[in-house]
Amino acid sequence: MTIQKEYEGKTVTDATIEACKDLGISREELEFEVVSEGSRGLLGIGGRNAVIKITNESSKVQSEVVKDVTNQEPIDTDKVHEIFSEIVKHFVDDSTIEVDTNERNILLKLKSESNLGFLIGKKGEMIKNIEFLLSRIASKQNSESIFVSIDINSFREKKDKELVERVGVLIDKVISINRPLSLNPMNSYERRICYLEIEKNSEVTYKTKEVGMLKKITILPKVIDKNLP
Question: Looking at residue 58, what DSSP letter applies?
Fold first, then answer.
């Protein structure tokens, strides 16, 4: 069985970055066909995104698969921290960077009083490219797929907290009305946060459905009372 799924980006490279982050695999593991190389259009009008179709065997795809990490070696984060610090120093004089690890993931928490909008870039393109580059470096250093995320001034942390609260409200409502309810389509990072929160409650379960390049989570009561209106 193979996975055939399409990803879009301004360029083929951008599309492969999105695919790798969503599927949890390195660029070397990604097998894809170019559906469209995209175009800029005339004077910026009528441009089209590049589209790729992945053809990886399902056994290679690690996204949303729970792995046994009992005997795994700790992730070496020194090189990633050093490189990211050097990048930041070129633009910001005063900043702090904390490093957290979770299974095969590295989270770099950057805090500074300076304006860091340039580091995020338009629509987050700059930060995505830096995350992809650091993920490649960490994967090579640790000889396995490692994924690096960057949180600037706790922005991601705040968004994650808001998502957890939103899921909690929806869980309560599902239990109250005894009917399934759905969240908006999300990427794999956001879905993992939702799964963990849903699994804390023994009265509900969930299922997912693909919506374009994203997936939608539906929360369901484990026992549906058919007598309710």
Answer: G
Asked if the model's pLDDT at residue 70 lies above 50, the reply is no
pTM of the model: 0.50
Reading the block at residue 41, the tokens are: 């259009």
Pick the CATH number of 156-221 from 3.30.1370.50, 2.40.100.20, 3.40.47.10, 3.90.180.10: 3.30.1370.50
Helices of type H across 143-223: 155-177, 188-198
Instruction: Name the CATH superfamily housing domain 78-153.
Output: K homology (KH) domain (3.30.300.20)
Q: Extract the tokens encoding 201.
A: 């409650």
Q: Is the pLDDT of residue 83 over 60?
A: yes
- Domain ranges for the chain: 5-60, 78-153, 156-221
Residues 108, 97: Cα–Cα separation, whole Å: 6
Reported as a single tens digit per residue, the pLDDT across 4-48 is 577 777 777 777 877 776 666 666 677 778 888 777 655 555 567
